[in-house]
Amino acid sequence: MHNKFVVDGLREKGAVFVEELDECPTDRPVIFSAHGVPKSVPAAASERRMIYVDATCPLVSKVHIEAERHHENGLQMVMIGHAGHPETIGTMGQLPEGEVLLVETVEDVGTLTPRDPEQLAFITQTTLSVDDTKDIVAALRARFPAIVGPHKEDICYATTNRQEAVKVIAPKVDALLVIGSPNSSNSRRLVEVARARGCSYAQLVGNATEIDWRALDGITTVGVTAGASAPEILVDEVVEAFRDRFDVAVETVETARESVEFKVPRVLREDA
Fold first, then answer.
1. Structural domain boundaries, residue 197
2. Model confidence pLDDT, tens digit, residues 143-178
3. Is residue 42 domain-shared with residue 91, that is, in the same domain?
4. What DSSP assignment string belongs to the chain?
5. Is residue 14 part of a domain?
6. 50: CATH
């Protein structure tokens, strides 16, 4: 993940963050981020005899497996995602160059030039806006009726659940604060969803110190949510910051319950 609070905490504990594998010494373990990495990265780590932990989110790994399966069946992939995002780079890097075509908007669908329009499949980045993605998928199916989609939606359940909660909250509040880092795709999508659902003031804040109190002058109801990688402590701090300034009544809006658990990476289970 790349939540600033979490990353800074890891850095204080001694973690060193790098962009490329060749920045790593071979006598220290290296961890691949939750966003995933191109297939060439673990291959290079193995060649250098490095100890590595693949911490790719299992939901991202699911997309990787889908892409490989379709590729083996002779299909060219279309990925719905954001150019330059670490997850998009990692997913596109699972297949040979040219085998994954990237689209970011409905307009991009109209300019696609696949190898064979009858031999296509699509996958998505896991942190996208559910509504925007539906429009792009509809455009793909309209232009390429034979295109194959995932058996189960690729967008992360945590991303989907938060967007659904914001859709419920946004029409009821004067302002909505999304706690998350500027480089968090799913956090930025929550701001967009809130604005699309009629909340005129929806802003992304990293923590309580970034709240613009002047912009909230005169409001009576504030919605608070957080990106998937923002820890609970940041939410608690924002609520306490409001308590310090106002007489606060808290109402929890629950639209889904999450009970998913992920296993620790295999290399750590084996060591344990």
1. 160-245
2. 999 999 998 889 999 899 999 999 999 999 999 999
3. no
4. ---HHHHHHHHHTT----SSGGGS-TTS-EEE-TT---THHHHHHHHTT--EEE---HHHHHHHHHHHHHHHTTPEEEEES-TT-HHHHHHHTTS-TTSEEEE-SHHHHTT---S-TTSEEEEE-TTS-HHHHHHHHHHHHHH-TT-B--SS--S-HHHHHHHHHHHHHGGG-SEEEEES-TT-HHHHHHHHHHHHTT-S-EEEESSGGG--TGGGTT---EEEEE-TTS-HHHHHHHHHHHHHHS--------S-------PPPHHHHHH-
5. yes
6. 3.40.50.11270
Catalytically annotated residue among 19, 87, 251, 254: 87
Q: What percent of the chain has pLDDT over 90?
A: 85
270 tagged catalytic: no
